[in-house]
Amino acid sequence: DADGRFSEEVPEWRGLGVKEADKHIIAHLKAQGRIIKVDVINHSYPFCWRSDTPLIYRAVPGTFVAVEAIKEKLIANNKQTYWVPGHVREKRFQNWLENARDWAVSRNRFWGTPIPMWVSDDGEEIVVVGSKEELERLSGVAVSDLHREFLDHIELPSQQGKGTLKRVDEVFDCWFESGSMPYAQQHYPFENKQTFEASFPADFIAEGIDQTRGWFYTLMVLSTALFDKPAFKNLICNGLVLAADGQKMSKRKKNYPDPVLVIDSYGADALRLYLINSPVVHAEDLCFREAGVMQNLKSIFLPWYHAYRLLVASVRTAEAREGASFEPSVGEALGSANLMDKWILAAANGLVRFMRAEMEAYRLYTVVPRLVELIDQLTNWYIRMNKDRFSGERGAGERRTSLCTLFEVLMMLCRMMAPLTPFFAEHVYQNLRRVVPDAPASVHFLMIPEVNEAAIDPQMEADVRLMLQVIEKGRTLRERHTLSTRTPLPEVTFVSADAVALRAVETLHEYIADELNVRRVQTAPLAEMGGRVVLKCMPNHKRLGDRFGKAYKGIQGKIRALDTDALAAFLREGSLTLEGETFDKEDILVQLQYSGDKSHDADGVAGGLVILNVSPDAAMLDEAMAREVCAKVQKMRKEAGLRKEDALEVAYSCPADSSLLARVLRDQSAYIAGRIGRTPIPGAARPRRAVSLLRDEEEVRVKVLVDGKVQQKTEPLVLELLAGCPILGSKAAEALPDPSLLDDVENYVHCLDYARLRGTLEREGVLKVGLNGHAFELKRGEHLFLSYSEAAAVGGV
Description:
Elements: H1 22-31, E1 64-65, H2 71-78, E2 82-84, H3 86-98, E3 103-104, E4 106-107, E5 117-119, E6 126-128, H4 132-139, H5 148-151, E7 155-157, E8 164-167, E9 171-172, H6 174-179, H7 181-184, H8 193-199, E10 202-208, H9 215-227, E11 232-238, E12 241-242, H10 259-266, H11 268-276, E13 286-287, H12 290-322, H13 330-334, H14 339-360, H15 364-385, H16 387-390, H17 396-417, H18 422-432, H19 458-480, E14 489-496, H20 499-507, H21 509-516, E15 518-525, E16 533-539, H22 541-548, H23 552-560, H24 564-573, E17 575-578, E18 581-584, E19 588-594, E20 600-605, E21 608-613, H25 618-639, E22 648-653, H26 660-667, H27 669-676, E23 681-682, E24 692-706, E25 709-723, E26 727-728, H28 742-751, H29 754-764, E27 766-771, E28 774-779, E29 784-785, H30 788-793
Parallel strand pairs: 2-11, 10-11, 12-13, 14-15, 22-23
Antiparallel strand pairs: 1-3, 4-9, 5-6, 5-8, 7-8, 14-21, 16-19, 17-18, 20-21, 22-25, 24-25, 26-29, 27-28
């Protein structure tokens, strides 16, 4: 029966549940001698997902939609729709439609939408009621509610003399209601007829891949049965989000992190971007891992925020120094002659063009990776290569142009990312809009930017893409030889048969030299490398095997037999013909291999070879050690919480003045001063009254050449950050009426407020002193200096 118990057709066990009766049935069969074996078999079995009790399959009468009668129409209507990804429509959904069976739409439950079907006792007279008004007219009963408890008592008089008709006991399958959504939401056909007809089929819907047998299917069945057209035009189908172990997420099992805690920890935008930049948007399953959300925060949002913060800090500094408010100018950004400005604007506008085309095609999964790539290009490349421009080191004009460019890209990025990361994009936009007259109140009031065709430059993008590959390969070669970027190297050479690629590296050589810290960047045509670079070809086995079948073995031998000249021509032209067959770069992979001496190492990039000289000389090793010291100073500045504009001195001491490190610090003092903005003070020259801000003593790596090989050891070094202070010059005693006053004078000048002293010396050039009954003057640049760098520059110490 409906409760899973045996009915009167089985009198021996009537009233027993089918599972409870097992032992009685076994006993009965034993008593009759009909048992051969009693055993337990473990197997998969359906259980109720709510009560966790076993289920049985029981045939019951039901109401069906005759789907098989409209199957061909369903298949034809499916072909009118556009799905992303397309294979779900063409395979999974198409296969389901081709094998569709009549749809049982009735369910034996209390809760649900009552099926509006009244039937005579013999089942021969059936009336399907189409509206509340029709039911009232047929029954003569006022209807106030359409739930079953208000309808089950209503009976209709028979039109065939069969007494009264009663409503069937079943309710609708809830998927029938889901499939009716387009009509129900407009109360069609009773209301909004024109509105519905103007918007049907829907332009776009989205749901999970499990809905190919659910909502997508019922939408298609009902719209085909009613109107012979699909219910939608475009559909995005996503995969399922599973627990980290690949199982379905379950409240009962609690096998997933609390979404509220994830959002509180990393932000809603980080979670959104994690999901829409995952296999889910390819209609594949995602095993959710909280670490992935955290990685998005670290690799995307924090760099993006730092880029925005750099813009704000640089603009404030520029406004303070120039006394004028910053006004961004798209025209100034586009008119920049700087190659990196041209590149980042070309990349941003190229992405806008790509995004518009792909979003029109509903391909979200191609857009998000490109947006993430632009953030990486902006933060890891453009900003790092232009920090000296943002800070004003190359002049006010360069600073303004670079800030206009950065502002434009950040504004474009906010508008492109707004649909994907609405909260963070809005946060950044709210500050950026303050310098834009009449800017809309929210980024969400703006459309995706229009493409600025003047900024599009595919060749520039390709050139910089090659430059980045050369830099990445150079870094890889450094790592292979444990040579940090702080160690200068003689040169890097790019070899290629492609003249365009060679010109690109030549044009961008300054950036390559700076990023790889090499003295020279050279290019060389492949033909001029002689025996130092050899060509090796590799046929694409899968591609050519599919193309030639059994004949591939002979083709493979002929490809491998190609000489250097033929392969070089193939690299230049992009194709070759062999025995009447044409082959392109997808068919044959040509690798350039270096065969020179061990002082160089090489690795390939697309269409070329990067050769790095990995043999630094002694002067380069000295510079590397100086860079190591500079890095430690910058680290100490950060630990001390100092700003770039804070007045500061740096003192150092080595246990032995004759040590290698002491010599390097003396010889490289000008280089160090150029990098940290101040000349380091040897321990013996440290002002005795200077205030120490931070002192650090640790071992520093020093490198020397021994028989042409780099050897490394450590030496102790003491570094000390001092508050900015005046420096008495070597001629200070000459300005004193009594040389014995020198100690008292030093105490006196160090007791003065440094900012006021700076103002006095910058205005008047002298400091008038009255001390111990004596009056005298100390001249700036002769007797007294505002910093050790100032004194060292004129030999005043």
